[in-house]
Write a structure and sequence with these properties.
Oligomer: single chain
Low-confidence stretches: none
Strand order of the largest sheet: 3-2-1-4-5-6-11
CATH topology of one domain: Rossmann fold
CATH superfamily of one domain: NAD(P)-binding Rossmann-like Domain
Helix content: 40-55%
C-alpha cells in the first residue's frame, strides 16, 4: 500500500494511475483545496481499479496518523502543498504553513507509524537563478521566491532527518515544468481560477475560455527574449516516482537522500510553446507581451543524466505529445472536472 498525499492533484492523479497499473494498492489523503474528487473517480475509470480515499489536511497530525495506520502503507509519496510562485510572494505565511508545517506533521506521523520511506515532490526552484546550465544536482541551492524556499527548507529538513537516522529512505525529486495530460483525455491539469502554469493557460485561450495569453517579459537573454523552461510530460514525471519508489524499496540503507532531477534536458521558450500548441490544436493562441513577473528567471533546464544512472529513468514524450495530450484534455473538458 502506498500513501499518496495530494493524490487528487495534477501530478498526484497521474501518479496514482501508474501506481495502480503497476499493481500497487493506493490510499489518497487530500483536502481538495486545489483539486477535485472527480479526478480520483476518473483514475479508477482509467485503471479499472479502486483506491482508498481519506479526506484530510496534512497539517492535521492526528488525522494523518490515523489514516496512515489504517492504510497499512509501506511508503509515502508526498505531493500535497501550495504551488503558485506568484501567489507565494503575496501569501508567504500560507506557503510556509501548508508546505513546511504540513511536511513536518507528515514526517512526525510517519515516524510514529514506523513508515520510513518517502518520495518527496521537490522542484527545480531550489536552484534559484542558475549559475550554469544545464542544471546538475550539485548546483548551489537557493530560491528566488517563497514557494521555492519552502521546497528548499523541506529538502534541508529531510537531509537533517536522514543524517540523524539513516534508516529513513528518502527520495527528493526535483521537477522541472510538468505539462500535458493522460492520453485518455480523462485527467489533466485543472487549475482553479487563473492558471499559473503556461500550458493550461494556452489551452484555455485556444478553447475560447480566455481572450489572450500574457507573456511575462520578452527582454530576457534568450533566443526570442521569452523565458525558457524544461517542460516534462506529466506521465513521464509520474513514472519517475515509480522508479524512485522502486529504488528506495530495494535499498535497505542509504548513505544519503536519493536526489535527482526529473526533466528532459531541453529548454523551450514561451513562444516555442505557443507555436507548438497552435500547430497541434489548429487554433490560434493570441498573446500580449507584459512586464516580467517578480521571481521569474530567464532560463532553466535540467541535466537528467543522474536520474537515468540511478533510476533507469528518462523522459520519453516530447513537446508535440505534451501539446496533443493537453489539447485533448482541454477540448474534452473545457471546464475541467467541473464541466
Amino acid at each position: 500500500m502506498i500513501f499518496v498525499t495530494g493524490g487528487a492533484g495534477y501530478i498526484g492523479s497521474h501518479t496514482c494511475v501508474e501506481l495502480l497499473d503497476a499493481g500497487y494498492d493506493v490510499t489518497v489523503f487530500d483536502n481538495f483545496s486545489n483539486s477535485h474528487p472527480e479526478a480520483l473517480a476518473r483514475v479508477e475509470r482509467i485503471t479499472g481499479k479502486k483506491l482508498r480515499l481519506v479526506r484530510g489536511d496534512i497539517r492535521d497530525r492526528a488525522a494523518l496518523e490515523m489514516a496512515l495506520r489504517e492504510s497499512g502503507a509501506s511508503a509515502v509519496i508526498h505531493f500535497a502543498g501550495l504551488k503558485a510562485v506568484g501567489e507565494s510572494a503575496t501569501q508567504p505565511l500560507a506557503y510556509y504553513d501548508n508546505n513546511v508545517v504540513g511536511t513536518l506533521r507528515l514526517l512526525e506521523a510517519m515516524g510514529d507509524c514506523r513508515v520510513k520511506t518517502l518520495v518527496f515532490s521537490s522542484s527545480a526552484t531550489v536552484y534559484g537563478d542558475p549559475i550554469r546550465l544545464p542544471l546538475t544536482e550539485d548546483h548551489p541551492l537557493s530560491a528566488t521566491n517563497p514557494y521555492g524556499r519552502t521546497k528548499l527548507i523541506i529538502e534541508e529538513i529531510l537531509r537533517d532527518l536522514h543524517r540523524s537516522d539513516p534508516s529513513w529512505r528518502l527520495g527528493l525529486l526535483r521537477y522541472f515544468n510538468p505539462a500535458g495530460a493522460h492520453a485518455s483525455g480523462l485527467i489533466g491539469e485543472d487549475p482553479q481560477g487563473i492558471p499559473n502554469n503556461l500550458l493550461p493557460f494556452v489551452g484555455q485561450v485556444a478553447v475560447g475560455r480566455r481572450v489572450y495569453l500574457n507573456v511575462w517579459g520578452n527582454d530576457y537573454p534568450t533566443p526570442d527574449g521569452t523565458g525558457v523552461r524544461d517542460y516534462i510530460h506529466v506521465v513521464d514525471l509520474a513514472l519517475g516516482h515509480l522508479k524512485a519508489l522502486t529504488a528506495l524499496e530495494r535499498s535497505p540503507t542509504m548513505a544519503e537522500c536519493l536526489t535527482v532531477n526529473l526533466g528532459t534536458g531541453t529548454g523551450y521558450s514561451v513562444l516555442d510553446i505557443v507555436k507548438a500548441f497552435e500547430q497541434t490544436s489548429g487554433r490560434s493562441v493570441p498573446y500580449k507581451i507584459a512586464s516580467r513577473r517578480p521571481g521569474d528567471i530567464a532560463s532553466c533546464y535540467a541535466d537528467p543524466q543522474r536520474a537515468f544512472e540511478l533510476l533507469g529513468w528518462r523522459a520519453e514524450r516530447g513537446l508535440s505529445a505534451m501539446c496533443a495530450d493537453a489539447w485533448r484534455w482541454q477540448s474534452m473538458n473545457p471546464d475541467g472536472y467541473r464541466g
